[in-house]
Amino acid sequence: MKRVTRYLYHNGLSLSFGLFLVLALIGQALAGHSDFNDRVVSAGGTPIGLLDYVTSSDFAVDVAENWQSEFLQFFLYILLTVWLIQLGSPESKHPDEVGLESDEQQLVGRHARRDSPAWARAGGWRTGLFSWSLGLVMATFFVLSWLAQSIAGHSAFNSEQLGQLQDPVSYGEYVISADFWNRTLQNWQSEFLAVGSMAVFSVYLRQRGSPESKPVGSPHATTDTSG
Amino acid sequence: MQGGRNMMSRGILIAYLVLVVGGLTYMIIIGLTS
What's this model's pTM, rounded to 2 decimal places? Predict the structure, then answer.
């Protein structure tokens, strides 16, 4: 296999999703621009160009509200699966493995292997930080995305208020407003449904060959195996 | 995963981080300036 082909083959999952993201964002920009102008025109305003739309707070808040809920979903799933189990789910641990597990099980400190990451072996704050790095990064991106949603949403909301000759609201008023929480919760509910469905469906249903599923012939009661 | 480590790409990790951090910065700046 050629070097480039091998690179694409070995990184297909992350490269594919990166490509899907770019294509979906372009699609969102085009559809969102058209929808925005429809509303502007029907309200008697002047349509704006695509560049003006993708640099507007209307576009930014729509992107940010979806980002925050995705990062929240993964942060919660990563963290809650440390302590909560779902018997029969390939995503869940066994009941006797609940919690942070021993250093031996986690290959840290003196239990680290020769090829373990350096910070797993280092001990002290470095091993502590590295042990939580995946959850911490997801949590950080969630908080920043939610912050971006609130800032862009505040700006978009006030543009609409001014367009309707109504008073703008302060940032503090916006983050307790119905608009902010409607945008937030409509995204959260869909993420919770998807994750809950995955945890339950994967107990009884199979996808042959997927590491997200148990092997087809694995019993429903079997927890923590992927095929 | 024998031989897998060499093919694991830090380039893609960095690209994703740049995308997310850049995207968030972009959205915050737009929100603050528009």
Answer: 0.93
